[in-house]
Amino acid sequence: MTISQLSTNHLLGIEHLQKADIEKIFATAEQFLEVINRPIKKVPSLRDVTIANLFFENSTRTKLSFQLAEKRLSADVINFSASSSSVNKGETLLDTVNNILSMKVDMVVIRHPSPGVPHYLSKHIQAHIINAGDGTHEHPTQALLDAFSMRQTLGDLRGKKIALIGDILHSRVALSNIFCLKKLGAHIEVCGPPTLIPKYIDSLGVRISYDLRSTLAWCDVANVLRIQLERQDQRFFPSLREYIRYYGIHLEMLNQLDKPIVIMHPGPINRGIELTSDVADSSHSIILDQVQNGVAVRMAVLYLLGTQLH
Ligand code: NCD
Questions:
Q1: pLDDT digits over 210-239, tens only?
Q2: CATH (residue range 140-290)
Q3: Where are the domains of the chain?
Q4: How far is the CA of 307 from the centre of ligand 1 (A)?
Q5: How many helices (H) and strands (E) does the chain have?
Q6: Which of 18, 88, 162, 257 has its CB surrounded by the most CB atoms within 10 Å?
Q7: CB 30 within 8 A of CB 1
Q8: Is 294's C-beta closer than 6 angstroms to any atom of ligand 1?
Q9: pTM of the model
């Protein structure tokens, strides 16, 4: 594999990433996708590189996906979960991280409930930082794997119509998707109840819709997002039943469209809320491809940043 470098030492978000970086990550992920489908799935690219996965917030897919990507690249990996650590004994974030770094860690993958934590760390510690989700702010590797999966299905995303549906206000996936897809030339519409669409969204150059059926009729891809109940400190809609009535996607809706539509979801899915099981498991859905691509895209990010060490 030829080594080409990214314009940055950290992946903190998509907002300030260059389009050329995104293209480099995709081209590298393409090659890793081929590697992870071989009988021998491991390459020695990050041998002698030590990576710490620091998860201060729950995660299934993202954590497993990063761990698998690191192992496929032969990195040495240490894992840390806030729920079972000394953070509960009052240690500061910087102390926790500095202790981990004195164990000679080269790269840190961090998920944290507070926006900006990966950016703060990148200014205070030596290691290369990858943001695995910072509160409601950004989730760059999810946006990269989403765009990569869309491209795999639809080809060049220039002029393609992508809808982000659901809880836009609390979703870091929405914000990172918007930054990424705009750089790749797609048209974007956000759709959800007015209370879950932030006022600033206008300034990002996206269309806004409150009507699910018209959004589904418009788009080539519907990326459906979870209602982030754990981040909602007030009632943003009267009841889940009402949310489902207006914004839940079911198969009959898609069949009535009379045109192809691709359904995506970053997971975890609340089956029966944002979409029904028959939609999640239908031929429209590329949800499991997203998971497979996630490993290849994360391998690409780790590899490209890893080759820039020292
Ligand atoms: C997303 C996340 O954590 O932001 N999930 C994920 O990374 N697989 C979306 C979500 O939690 O709804």
A1: 999 999 999 999 999 999 888 887 788 889
A2: 3.40.50.1370
A3: 19-139+293-306, 140-290
A4: 28
A5: 11, 9
A6: 162
A7: no
A8: no
A9: 0.95
